[in-house]
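Protocol step 4 of 5: obtain the predicted structure for the target chain.
Materials: sequence only (see below). No template structures provided, no constraints applied. The aim of this step is simply to have a reference model before the mutagenesis design in step 5. Sequence pasted as it appears in the construct record:
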Amino acid sequence: MKKIKKSSAALLATTVLCSSLPTPTFAIDPSEHWAEKTMKQWQESGLLDGVGTGEFQLNDTINRAEFMALVNRGLGFTEKSDRVGQYKDVEENAWYYDDVAKALEAGYISGTSDDSMDPLGTITNEQVYAILARIANEQGSVDLSNIADQLQISGWAKKNIEQVVASGYVIGDTEQKINPDKNTNKAQALTLLDRFKNKDRIFAYPGTYDAKSARNVTVLCDGVELKGMEITGTLTLGKNVNDVKLMQTKVAGEIIKENPDVKITQDFLWKDGTFEGIAQGQTAPLKVSVTVAEGKITDIKILEHKEKDEDLQKMKKVLKQIVEKGDLDGIDLGKDSTVNMKGFLNAVKDAMAQSSGETQKPGESKAAKQFGELKDGTYEGVAQGYGGPMRLQIEIKDGKITKIDVLSHSETEAYFKATEKMFDKIVENGSTENVDMVSGATVSSKAILNAVEDAVSQAVGKTEKAGQSEAAQEASGKRRRRGRKPTEPNGQDF
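Step 4 output (structure tokens):
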């Protein structure tokens, strides 16, 4: 049994580097280069330390070893594979030896043959895009006919490029070309990785995009529809954008219009109206009514309850906070929350499930069906991960999750390690509420949440053993066979 330890390391955390690694110099005045801001941020964070030897020139072609070094430092890959020893052209005293080992363990690159890595060779744009698609592990597609040089894309890379364009990571140049067969330079690699690292997305081709979550989003052309997205930062509409559709998309920050006459068509995530919601309290059902206007919660009334006045007063403060915010994001009941307080919040969620169209009437939502009381004890949960079943053990004390142990899993170690912060967050919250999945490890993240919910299902008496809950049986999508190496049409790995 592997015990999960609390750790501040995360997928996007910076890597602590050995002081013996070479420090690059910068031959170009960064103030004269379009990648100035990004380069300075990475340099100040120490993420460019040890990337290559000698001068770090932004316009220079990046080699495979330097690209691996940027990926590992920027995305926090630290685990090493001993398979590095099989590559004859990767000498143990080379500056990039550890970075090749990390790349192999993370699973985003392989050699040009079984015993060759070609670390100092160049890497093309479409190879970089394919690697990013593998790391991001996001679904999505876009019409490649809008890309001017789409006929130059290799057959093996088309699906990967569809994914990274649909995810808003690849935008092409001013002529709408992505130059798939050209070698990538350092400025391009740095900018692309920074965009992914920070969950910033840019959409430069017409189409419907459902990239789920993002920090900052930029739209550069007409004909773009953002569907079901949650944007935590700003949405910038470029000067050439005359119309854009925001379908069930929430923008927490400012909408910046470089064209003041741009037409924005919005279909709110929540439909206006008044909806009733019900959920289970400590001893009896709770009922509330929630009013939504212009896509925001404007009023909540408690219709039925049999709760203590102390709990009721606490919950009224939380309900007031929800109305002031206009939504449920960031609402934290705190560690001293009671079953009744959770019940009230679940009743509000049940009402909002009708507003969003997820359900048709009170009591049909997942929140409404949650039992109120978690019975103290130890429970096992299982769910399907990326590489196979994942089995966890949780400990419930005083009605909250206080400990999680990993019994077994078949995930790639680097990706699983990236999700460790989720365990800390679940224990901190006492539940899976408001626990975000890790970008780039979404299937593994979902498996963790499902396995915990499977165990919780037993704690509330809904199921009797691991694997019986709806969460455990939820499909996680198509699995990739472990160890499989993507290949180019000529049979060469990259």
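Step 4 remarks: The mean pLDDT is 82. The first helix runs from residue 36 to 44.
Proceed to step 5.
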